[in-house]
Records
---
Amino acid sequence: MKLFDRLMTIRKARPGAAFLVLLDPDQETADDLARRAEICCREGADALLVGGSLLMTGSLDERIRVVKQAVDCPVILFPGGAYQLSAEADGILFMSLISGRNPQYLIGEQVLAAPRVHQMRMDTVPVAYMLVASESMTSVEFISQTRPLPRNKPDLAVAHALAAQYLGMRMCYLEAGSGSKQCVPATLVSAVRQAVGLSLIVGGGIQTTLEAKELVRAGADFIVIGNALEKDGRREFVAELARAVHGEDGPL
Ligand code: 1GP
């Protein structure tokens, strides 16, 4: 089954939203990464994203290979640039940073990556990536050299999401930036939800079950959490977040 269809099947199986965990391949040794991946999936993560704005490790293939051996769920590339490719993954979020006006991240990196993606026969999901402002500058804002969308102007987010839909994107990623102090406002998610039929991925700065539930209630189809799960001893928290995102711990 194609990656997009797999993701939709996972989504439909959940009354709330699907739960994606972002693994930073730079954070740990390959074995630690595999162990964490295994715990996350056992406790309820539906799929794993691997990647980030900046990648230091030179062994992305190996890291993804060991993660794949440890879990049954899809392991998906979430690349910060054309250099973050691996045929070991189940596919790639092929993204364009449409909230920005930096041609390198709108189309440049994609052109550099495309021949290798083709050569590796990677499964691609076209995703409109939209960075939303938070209180301080995030790595993605700095690396991409783009201005994020204002938090208090949902109409701007809606206009971008509509453009993405007309361009034929399949998913829209509303991103506050990894490690952000504030997640994307629920009001903005709900405005985009009402305007477009695209599947909505929401991530960045989500730290509590309450925040996750609010974003699901606002219309997120996929919730992504990375940083909040990176500390040790977070097994129970993963399970708690999974139940909240899936809508299994009471009415949303
Ligand atoms: C980043 O949305 C993801 O792209 C996850 O962010 O690490 O802040 O959870 P956090």
---
Amino acid sequence: MSYETIQFDIRDGYAAITLSRSEVLNSFNALMHEELKAAIKSADKDPAVRCLLLTGAGRGFCAGQDLGDRNTAPEAAPPDLGHTLDTSYNPLMRQLTGLEMPVICAVNGVAAGAGANIALACDIVLAARSASFIQAFCKIGLIPDSGGTWTMPRLVGQARAMGLALLGDKVSAEQAEQWGMIWRCVDDEALMGEAEQLAARLATQPTKGLALIKRAIRASAGNSFSEQLDLERDLQSIAGRSHDYREGVAAFLEKRKPQFRGE
Ligand code: LHQ
């Protein structure tokens, strides 16, 4: 399939998706929503793909919704943004966070509005030193969406989440790393090399086990300690029956490198 608004490549066991509307800082129109969902679906269905890497083309990662794509003229009927979330952003966020493989986001530049919250919903977020995160919603009378009101307090705590959401101030990649909002801030020129290396490395790991780890960590926010122990029991039972557990233990005992199949 060929795409107009994104680039999609499969390399070294991982899929790389690059948001590619750089003239508008990769902000979303309807076609980009459609193409991104189709690309994620095809990565998900491809057994050769065991990690997803998401990044942006040009100087930005993503500036959220394309604000020029909607008619907000005074004479236009008020839009139903709830419907937009229901039909485009929310399905994307569920699809992205539900993927049974690690998802890396390489934030190459500014990530604003929904663009920031898409990045922050990924499993491992690397950001270029010159990149930044902006909860821009408050500046246009909206609330953080794409999971931002859920993700932000969990990543940085309520005080910082509230300040960022109410003020819409820019957070630099360095600050984001210091606050624990992202995994690492790296020099601009090292970003893609590091992200690609990480994706290729994760693609050789026990993918099913990694998917279960993601499930447990994501579920923990809504569980008590005791519920989480039960969940760990259930997920460990599944992990213990996998090929890769058997292979991991055998390789350890035989003092050799494991050959994980992701199964
Ligand atoms: C843009 C955009 C953009 C169009 C830069 N749209 N052109 C969900 C439900 C439904 C509807 C509403 O939204 C949502 C979720 C959301 O995401 S709401 C939040 C939408 N995003 C924003 O409010 C961010 C708007 N952008 C900005 O504040 C700035 O562009 C940032 C801070 C991201 C970057 O600033 P600069 O580095 O100074 O770049 P710039 O502003 O000069 O932008 C470069 C170009 O990109 C420029 O076009 P031009 O033709 O003048 O070169 C901008 O108009 C265009 N652009 N964001 N979201």
